[in-house]
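quick one: shikimate-3-phosphate bound model?
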Amino acid sequence: MNTLTVEAAAAPETTLPLSIPPTLSRVVLTGFMGAGKSTVGRGLAAALGWKFLDLDDLIEELAGISIPEIFATLGELHLRRLESRALARALRLPHTVIALGGGAPETLTNRLLIEQTPNTVAIFLDAPFPTLFDRCMLQALNPSATARPNLADPVLAEARFRLRHPIYRRLARHTVDTTTLSLASTVPAIVALLQTSK
Ligand code: S3P
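yep, here:
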């Protein structure tokens, strides 16, 4: 495969001059399922005039099958290997907002890749587990939504959330609490944080 599925740079949505540090080249959005990484990522890319890449989409492209099919036929360990390969490719792209899958930061390799890639800032989209779970249940009502196998058992899902929460926090330069924030206010909040990033 020679090309990555990267969504083209969108026309900036704001006319305000943005003083993003000139060396900044990638924003990585992290957080649990339902945090809004893909939706916020698209909005952020549009605000910055950057490209957007959803890591789950790239994994599916590498595997040639969907994430639920990878879980069912190859297993989660295989998914995690594909995820690391996909992430290494994604982190080579300039001026790109990358939305991780919720489990990506659990893998040490992925954390090291993100931390050691220059000009890259990770942002944690945070919310309490019940909020995230409810959002995912609402999304699942949409017939075109991709299934989330790691949400099938709510008790195990909450245990994963507790395990991952400190990992997300440590990885990220900034945490944005999205519990009550709409997309319209989350994107400007992140842009404001990026303007202070060195
Ligand atoms: C997963 C999250 C999913 C996807 C896969 C596993 C997880 O991504 O990578 O189903 O273990 O949390 P989203 O966080 O985008 O739903």
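Residues 33, 37, 56, 67, 101-103, 148-150 surround shikimate-3-phosphate (CB under 6 Å).
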